[in-house]
Amino acid sequence: MSEYIVIRDTRLNGNLPGSFVRWWHDLNVITTSATSPLQAVFNGITQIHRQKGRLHTIFLLCHGFAGSSPNRQMSGDFGGQGLQLAREGVLHSNVVDWTQIQNKAANIVVYACAASNTESGNELTTEDGRYLMGALAIHANANVYAGDRIQWYLPSTFDFGRWEGNLLKFSPSGTAPMRVSRAPVEFNQLNSIL
Q: pTM of this prediction?
């Protein structure tokens, strides 16, 4: 189990680093956009899984729906409403679709703003990022790693640097998330691994 997949939504500004060209054959990249169906992502993951077996990590590089809280009627470092990935996004209403890749990867690392954010009063609403990331872990049967604050990166190199806020690990067992200092593999480590 040493394969990695990068799922990159083109609405996230920037280009993958030039060094990707050097080790492209060892890295599987699925590009998606506002017009690409999420089903294409699942099909791509399934095809790579058939060829390579269980994957080590899937990286999701996309925007999180963040920056305001409709429930609280205010702007801020809020999120938890979902991921802007493919046409449909990853939302509370469709997270169950990730059962299509169940058992295909050990880890999913989410590089998106405030994906695991849940502000007080937003529990069990469509702004409950902890619930959403926990559901993603359960449906994909993978550990999910996601930050609870707006994340910053350098678009010229896709360098995400350190995690802003807390990085939470969600287990497929459905237990409470744990705060961790890093994911098992960080996106900026891929160049040295592959």
A: 0.92
